[in-house]
Design a protein that fits this description.
The protein is an all-beta fold and about 110 residues long. The chain is built from no helices and 11 strands. The strands form 2 sheets. Strands 2, 4, 5, 6, 9, 10 and 11 form a 7-stranded mixed sheet that branches.
Length: about 110
């Protein structure tokens, strides 16, 4: 069974930066996209960023220009660099790999203080 292990969350002041990473425990069959989603208390899970197998990238409107998604396909890992963080970025961040099946990470808390 594939497991996605996230790391890098934490507490940061507004304007600061954090980096997240998510590594799959093994290669994923027919992997076609990797990405990040987030969920704040009382809100629905929302797209942060995705990157397809071909390298096409999509960002949620609220993070464009501040967050950068990247990947290391050889090591089944996806990264999220978050700059100029705002209090409204506070959420649990989940990585997501989609292939033959879809996989979710366990979530990592990101808290941005004002």
């Amino acid at each position: 069974q594939v497991q996605l292990v996230e790391s890098g969350g934490g507490l940061v002041q507004a304007g600061g930066s954090l980096s997240l990473s998510c590594a799959a425990s093994r290669s994923i069959s027919s992997l076609n996209a990797m990405g990040w989603y987030r969920q704040a208390p009382g809100k629905q899970r929302e797209l942060v960023a995705t990157i397809t197998w071909s390298g096409r990238i999509n960002y949620g409107d609220s993070v464009k220009g501040r967050f950068t998604i990247s990947r290391d396909t050889a090591n089944n890992t996806v990264y999220l660099q978050m700059n100029n963080l705002k209090p409204e970025d506070t959420a649990v961040y989940y990585c997501h790999f989609s292939g033959t099946y879809a996989y979710w990470g366990q979530g990592t808390q990101v808290t941005v203080s004002s």
